[in-house]
């Protein structure tokens, strides 16, 4: 996709065939957004392989649950998905709300702040609580390392294009991550990672545990931070949308713990995930045999990467796709191969409900407790594999209402 991945994607969006071949060797790779092909991929997902992205495999490790397949993958999902499912969401409400409110407490009148940095800090604390079971010190070390690795666009591109992938974390950090998980498991503190150190996973080796913990923190933290920052960005960039959100908040006591409590805000969340999906490409899918698809024959072992970004820009599904229009989600529900910010099929994101909870609670509380004015918008940039508003994005606190 070259040096300007977003410009490349925008330039491909109007192709009628709905796919582009990215490379031919060592294995052919296609970026796909054609509706029928996506539908087929997700329907047959359980029979496909899911090889990791070359750049992330090195950083998250070969054992990562993100590229597990078959029975091994099913076991991970059986254990990890229920605690963050819609039904279990209430158990996280107060932790998420308190984390958000602590961050808002620090915003004083006159302050100019970076919503992107603020959202990243909040998302890190929430991911830490869910994945590690506590606000462990090792989280800051993890965030600092991640920032050094993917924090600048030139570095991200250099690692991805010329160095064969992002570098692995230092051994000392890996040891501390594993120790935090083992301690949570020993103390019976509930956390996603400790479920992988106990029960049917008892006996798991440190190296494998490290890959899963790094993957869960990575999958849960950067993505949610970017989603929160984008939602704020789009709401404050559109005066009519901001007026509608504020009117909904004034007319309700709901805090966003359910989607139905603040339906317009939920529509903003969905529209933000459409127009700027934090994860622009879903996980790679690999076909085992020559496969008739996309009006051609996709050769055996070819890799297909579903383009969430381009699927979300199809005019027949989303008229005027470049406009931020939450109303489209109040009117109808697109199908899962047309609107897929959390992917689909057997790999559908386990954190989708939790992430949307975080987005609603964050935006509702911030806009209720502070009057804000936009100072500078953010431009879209890639941080690692995540589409995020640049750090130029700034807002000013005009008044506090605590
Ligand atoms: C707005 C925030 C988030 C976005 C946009 C997002 C997006 C995605 C996407 C696109 C995938 C790949 C799905 C596919 O290929 O079909 C995925 C997978 C995954 N996500 Fe998320 N995610 C978010 C938050 C989270 C959170 C909070 C967690 C952890 C609690 C999480 C954990 C995972 C895991 C474990 C997978 C792998 C699932 C599997 O392979 O079976 N994500 N996510």
From TrEMBL:
This is Cytochrome P450. It comes from the Bacteria. PANTHER family: CYTOCHROME P450, CYTOCHROME P450 12A4, MITOCHONDRIAL-RELATED. Belongs to the cytochrome P450 family. GO terms for molecular function: heme binding; iron ion binding; monooxygenase activity; oxidoreductase activity, acting on paired donors, with incorporation or reduction of molecular oxygen. It comes from Prauserella marina. Its cofactor is heme. Coiled coil: none annotated. Pfam families: p450 (PF00067). Heme binds at residue 349. The lineage of its organism: Bacteria, Bacillati, Actinomycetota, Actinomycetes, Pseudonocardiales. InterPro entries: Cyt_P450, Cyt_P450_CS, Cyt_P450_E_grp-I, Cyt_P450_sf, Cytochrome_P450_monoxygenase. Keywords: Heme, Iron, Metal-binding, Monooxygenase, Oxidoreductase.
């Amino acid at each position: 996709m070259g040096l300007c991945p977003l410009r490349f994607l925008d330039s491909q969006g109007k192709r009628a065939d709905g796919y582009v071949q990215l490379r031919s060797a060592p294995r052919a790779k296609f970026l796909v957004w054609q509706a029928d092909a996506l539908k087929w991929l997700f329907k047959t997902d359980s029979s496909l392989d899911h090889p990791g992205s070359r750049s992330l495999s090195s950083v998250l490790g070969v054992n990562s649950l993100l590229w597990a397949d078959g029975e091994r993958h099913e076991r991970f999902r059986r254990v990890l998905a229920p605690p963050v499912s819609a039904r279990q969401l209430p158990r996280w409400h107060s932790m998420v709300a308190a984390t958000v409110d602590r961050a808002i407490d620090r915003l004083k009148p006159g302050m100019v702040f970076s919503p992107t940095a603020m959202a990243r800090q909040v998302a890190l604390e929430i991911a830490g609580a869910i994945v590690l079971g506590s606000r462990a010190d090792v989280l800051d070390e993890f965030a600092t390392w991640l920032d050094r690795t993917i924090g600048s666009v030139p570095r991200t591109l250099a690692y991805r294009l010329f160095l064969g992938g992002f570098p692995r974390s230092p051994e000392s950090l890996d040891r501390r991550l594993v120790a935090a998980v083992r301690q949570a498991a020993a103390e019976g503190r509930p956390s996603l990672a400790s479920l992988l150190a106990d029960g049917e996973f008892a006996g798991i080796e440190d190296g494998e545990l490290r890959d899963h913990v790094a993957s869960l923190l990575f999958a849960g933290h950067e993505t949610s931070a970017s989603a929160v920052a984008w939602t704020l960005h789009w709401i404050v960039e559109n005066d009519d949308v901001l007026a509608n959100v504020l009117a909904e908040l004034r007319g309700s006591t709901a805090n966003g713990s359910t989607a139905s409590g603040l339906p317009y805000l939920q529509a903003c969340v969905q529209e933000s995930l459409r127009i700027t999906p934090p994860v622009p490409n879903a996980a790679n899918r690999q076909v085992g045999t020559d496969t008739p698809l996309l009006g051609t024959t996709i050769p055996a072992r070819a890799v297909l990467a579903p383009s969430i970004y381009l699927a979300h820009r199809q005019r027949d599904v989303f008229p005027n796709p470049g406009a931020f229009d939450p109303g489209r989600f109040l009117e109808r529900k697109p199908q899962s191969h047309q609107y897929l910010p959390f992917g689909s099929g057997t790999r559908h994101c386990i954190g989708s409900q939790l992430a949307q909870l975080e987005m609603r609670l964050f935006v509702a509380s911030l806009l209720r407790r502070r009057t804000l004015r936009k100072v500078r918008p953010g431009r879209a940039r890639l941080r690692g594999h995540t589409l995020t508003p640049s750090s130029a994005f700034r807002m000013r606190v005009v008044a506090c209402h605590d």
